[in-house]
Design goal:
30% helix, Alpha-Beta Plaits, alpha+beta
Length: 111
């Protein structure tokens, strides 16, 4: 009986396409809805928006991209997961300049 290949961690740095702020805000609810099952399945273990700077209270953040920590067998599996996201389909993420970096957590704390 063979076991499934081990999942590995990948740090994904996903810059936004310049000028994508309005599109990001428009499709964000669908993005979060699409990510939720990946979190439940353990494929996405961390993620969030990268900002130009922290906004003042009540101010809309100025986004520059996203970060995700993905568990997958290989980089191709990670790339497929990212390409399936609405941020990729709607032109928010600049996948041509995305970084998918093999990663190994030293510590991790639940939020």
């Amino acid at each position: 009986m063979s076991s499934a290949p081990a999942k590995k961690e990948f740090l994904c740095i996903l810059p936004d396409v310049p000028g994508a702020q309005a599109k990001r805000l428009e499709v964000r609810p669908s993005h979060l809805e699409g990510v939720r099952p990946l979190v439940v399945a353990g494929s996405v273990v961390a993620g969030g928006a990268m900002l130009e700077s922290h906004p003042a209270e009540g101010e809309t953040p100025s986004f520059k991209g996203s970060m995700m920590l993905v568990m997958a067998e290989n980089e191709a599996e990670v790339r497929a997961l990212l390409e399936n996201d609405i941020y990729a389909h709607k032109g928010v993420w600049d996948l041509a300049n995305a970084q998918i970096i093999p990663f190994k957590s030293a510590v991790r704390k639940e939020l």
